[in-house]
From TrEMBL:
Segments crossing the lipid bilayer: none
Signal peptide: none
Residues covered by region (Disordered): 75-99
Gene3D superfamilies membership: Winged helix-like DNA-binding domain superfamily/Winged helix DNA-binding domain
Domain of life from the UniProt record: Bacteria
Record-linked CDD domains: HTH_ARSR
Organism expressing this protein natively: Actinocorallia aurantiaca
Protein name: Helix-turn-helix protein
């Protein structure tokens, strides 16, 4: 089945989101990122698509930026029930979902970058093969994490963002070539 013809609930990320919301009663993009791995921006995108399909709905807010979502009536639970005794997906199950979501986001960027303001129409994609030991590979990953950690607070603390800041996806994949 092609992606364009796949039912909404068969998308692995959206299925995981429906299961999370069904299990917890409600979830935000931050909850999804914490439980499933990945970024809040990517989960926000898929939560909005599920809402557009009528499978979930936003819970009225009492303040703050959090946007909790719940199943819309019984339709989503009936159409996409969580497997009996299911729990949060393992890292091995969610990693391919996250990678696929990253790839999809990048393809969308490439298709739509001409719509971005001029100063945002470039990206910094690069790749390089280097020879490392397992310890060195772990060290490189630690450096990437340390650099990214300098900016993580901006996700949950909007006043700390510079006025012209926009969400930017950062993806690094370090793996041995077998």
């Amino acid at each position: 089945m092609t992606k364009a013809h796949r039912p909404m609930g068969e998308h692995p990320v959206r299925t995981a989101l429906l299961e999370l919301i069904g299990r917890e009663g409600a979830a935000t993009a931050t909850d999804a990122a914490r439980e499933l791995g990945g970024s809040t921006g990517l989960y926000s995108f898929h939560l909005r698509r599920l809402a557009e399909a009528g499978l979930i709905e936003e819970i009225p807010k009492s303040g703050g930026r959090a946007k909790p979502w719940r199943l819309a009536g019984d339709s989503a639970e009936t159409a996409f029930p969580a497997p009996a005794g299911s729990s949060a997906p393992s890292d091995n199950e969610i990693a391919p979902i996250t990678r696929g979501l990253e790839d999809e986001s990048y393809r969308q960027w490439l298709e739509r970058r001409d719509e971005a303001p001029e100063e945002w129409r470039h990206d910094e994609a690069f790749s390089q093969i280097v020879y490392l030991t397992p310890e060195e590979m772990e060290g490189v990953a630690d450096v990437f994490r340390a650099v990214i950690a300098q900016f993580r607070h901006r996700e949950t603390n909007p006043p700390s963002r510079p006025e012209d800041a926009e969400p930017v996806a950062i993806m690094a994949r370090l793996f041995p070539l077998l």
